[in-house]
Amino acid sequence: MNFNYYIPTKILFGAGKLGELHQQELPGKKALIVTTGGQSVKKYGYLAKVEKELDLAGVSHILFDKILPNPIKDHVMEGAALCKEQGIDMVVGLGGGSSIDAAKAIAVMAANEGDYWDYISGGSGKGLPVPNDPLPVIAITTTAGTGTEADPWTVTTKTETNEKIGFGYDKTYPVLAVVDPELMRTVPKNLTAYQGFDALFHSTEGYLNNTSYVMSDMYALKAIELIGKSLAAAVANGDDMEARSNVALANTLAGMVESTSGCTSEHSLAHAISAYHPNFEHGAALISISAAYYTYFANCGACDQRMIDMAKALGKTDADKPMDFVDALAALQKACGVDNIQMSTYGMKREELPKYVENARDTMGGLFQVDAAPLSNADALKILEASYK
Prior knowledge:
The chain is of the alpha/beta class. Helix content is 47%, strand content 11%. The strands form two sheets. A six-stranded parallel beta sheet has the order 1-8-5-4-2-3, with helices on both faces. Strands 6-7 form a two-stranded antiparallel ribbon. Strand 4 (90-95), helix 4 and strand 5 (137-141) form a beta-alpha-beta unit. The longest helix is centred in the middle third of the chain and has 23 residues, at 214-236. It is globular, with a radius of gyration of 20 Å.
């Protein structure tokens, strides 16, 4: 029993918690609010609530609302330039994973010179150390998918090279996170499902990851249990606050899994897909390859008991073989109405599948190194071929 543990984010969790933001000791006096170009945070009043909380706290604020569903480097650099120009001293990410991820990346570049890709490892990134600490980040999540409010990671795409790569280190944890399930009532059914499965796979990958240990295992199994218990209910009725709260908690716990062990090659492959097809929602891409991906690991013989553990956590209490997890996963996807996602609908072509494998290895190849068993490019291609519809 020997490990290091570090999750420094203060978390306000529960319905109505956004209303307590102004009571906190905030890390700055002039904030950049980072959100997407979509209208939901404005339409449903979430942005106005955040602005009111900042006003009550005596914090001035500027809005930067250009972030795409898959954040791109150009917007990171634009947001960072705005921070420097306006004397911003803290960044507030409001929305889903894309907004909060972008807030972290902007916070890094607001305090540093050069190009964001100077600090990225993998692909064409230079992998340089970050000279100056990022601006402090507050994460206010309106979805339950990425767990980015409780981890240091941020994923950004360099569009000119189709590289979608994760980045993060101890300094990119949010200093404060608000997880208020009331802000998740309005997420549509399909996105609730996609985001919930993203949280699930953060947890399953973290549990199978060969860096897993007692803390990550604890978070992962509880997150899997909560999603198995409540995701279908949250999809069916967005106003079911017990289900929404359970899935929100699972998502935050999954972020803690990301902070303690991490993702495996499943995420590399899904990121490669959405690097070429930004309209392919990340959670949907993960779902599309998941049955074949977990079948491979169920048959590899390297993680039999862990597959059984996950099956039991997901609700198949009589599980006694690795494929029981794949069966439980298929049942949950059917219950959530996401069991027939077609890659071809998003413009993917069967003959182009090898390029996604190559991209996954080139950009986020490190995740292949922590798989429970070796996954060769040929094996990964078979997974994509088996998944293609």
